[in-house]
Design a protein that fits this description.
The chain is of the alpha+beta class and about 230 residues long. Helix content is about 45%, strand content about 15%. The chain has two domains: about 120 residues, Ribonuclease H-like superfamily/Ribonuclease H (Nucleotidyltransferase, domain 5); about 60 residues, SH3 type barrels (Roll). This is Integrase catalytic domain-containing protein.
């Protein structure tokens, strides 16, 4: 009811299943005030992900502040909330208070509290960065595996050539004025068969292309005169 006096009723409230939120009094309050009350499944904190993310920052800081007497952690909630609400947010580029009210919060500076909060936020940022990098690594490995399967499939389906076969090779470089030229150069004679469908070639006759070159089976096809 304290926040209700200033901000009015929220449209919905998402909570865990603590006794304070499962009580009949709280249920009646939400019903009377036309507030939707959602309770997350026990053991599934991602159901209230935004709160869980801020808890990852708040709980370690409260633990450090109340190290002398852990039962007094609640005494630090209000000043910590004030510092957090007035702290620049990396994602929004504003403090939560500025986004909500539109002005900068006037605040008594508590350097120790702010340092603890920033330290915890930097650690969380580093953890998020590490998670992103691991996710990116998995995505890269997935694409590499798909590319390998595609390449292996092409290699299995590639024609088998022998020494002395006449072939044409695909033009792989297109400079100025070459886009309308034939896509294949040749004929070329295979002079050496190499592993992994690679071939050394020599030019036969007078046509575009290098005198000696090499190519792979997927960039070649048998030469057909005419």
């Amino acid at each position: 009811k304290v926040q209700q006096k200033t901000f009015g009723n929220p449209k919905r409230i998402i909570t865990d299943r603590g006794s304070a939120f499962t009580s009949k009094a709280f249920g009646d309050y939400c019903t009377n005030e036309n507030i939707q009350h959602f309770q997350i499944t026990t053991g599934v904190p991602r159901g209230n992900g935004q709160v869980e993310r801020i808890h990852r920052t708040l709980i370690p800081v409260l633990t450090k502040l109340s190290i002398a007497d852990s039962t007094k952690w609640f005494k630090f909630v209000d000043p910590l909330q004030r510092i957090l609400n007035s702290t620049f947010n990396r994602s929004t580029k504003w403090s939560p208070f500025e986004l909500l009210i539109g002005v900068t919060m006037r605040n008594k500076e508590d350097l120790h509290l702010r340092d603890l909060l920033m330290e915890e936020m930097m650690e969380e940022l580093q953890e998020q960065r590490d998670e992103l990098r691991q996710d990116a690594k998995k995505n890269i490995q997935k694409i590499q595996a798909e590319n390998k399967r595609t390449y292996d499939r092409k290699c299995r389906n590639a024609p088998s050539y022998q020494r002395g076969d006449l072939v044409v090779i695909q033009r792989t470089q297109f400079g100025t004025g070459l886009k309308l030229r034939p896509r294949f150069l040749g004929p070329y004679r295979i002079v050496k068969v190499k592993p992994r469908n690679r071939y050394d070639l020599e030019k036969v006759g007078n046509h575009d292309g290098p005198k000696l070159t090499n190519s792979s089976a997927d960039l070649m096809k048998f030469y057909s005169p005419g």
